[in-house]
Amino acid sequence: MKGTRIVMLSRIVLAASAALMLTGGVALAQDVIQTRKAGFDDYKKAMGEIKDAVGKGDLATVGPVAGRIDAFAATIPSLFPPGSDKGKTAAKELIWANFPDFTAKAQDLQASAKALQVAAASGDKATTAKAFGAMADSCKACHQRYRSE
């Protein structure tokens, strides 16, 4: 009888622990989804700031804003851990199925943001506009494949 109680108690503890781990995992996934949404919202805002600055010829503004994108791009792969494909997210499951390509696209964005910083520092508006277009293209390449609209 005593052995049966111990086995039953062990099963209850195990089940409770598993439930806690599962709900904790969901909470962590939702936290990372919120973090990446905030990052992408800032990224979208930064793209608008750069577009306006290039249009006005205010190249001094472009470099620091492109630096924000550079820093964010470096974090993108870490914002998509396994399990963060559930919940309110536009991320396609293809991200996790083809994570090396997804990571390469984030690295392309980072490289294009660095190139935009260099172009803006040159003071040449046409070169900066071209670099901004290249950075926008790297965004589209990722979104077309990995983001649900």
Written overview of the protein:
- The structure is a single chain.
- This protein has helices at 2-56, 59-75, 94-97, 99-122, 125-146.
- It is an all-alpha fold and 149 residues long.
- It is elongated.
- The chain starts with a helix and ends with a helix.
- Mean pLDDT is 85; it is low at 7-27.
Could you give the distance between the termini?
59 Å
CATH-level-2 architecture: Up-down Bundle
- Rounded average pLDDT: 85
Helical content, roughly? over 70%
Poorly predicted regions: 7-27
CATH superfamily: Cytochrome c/b562
By CATH reckoning, the class would read: Mainly Alpha
Order of helices and strands: HHHHH
- What is the global morphology? elongated
Main sheet attributes: strand count, strand direction, barrel closure = none
Strand content: under 5%
Given the structure, what is the number of helices? 5
Task: Report the strand count.
Answer: 0
Radius of gyration: 22 Å
Structural class: mainly alpha
CATH topology: Four Helix Bundle (Hemerythrin (Met), subunit A)
| Oligomeric state | single chain
Give the domain tally.
1
Characteristics of this structure?
mainly alpha, Four Helix Bundle (Hemerythrin (Met), subunit A), elongated, 82% helix, 149 residues
Gist of the model:
The protein has 149 residues and is mostly helical.
Q: How is the topology of this model organized?
A:
Layout: H1 2-56, H2 59-75, H3 94-97, H4 99-122, H5 125-146
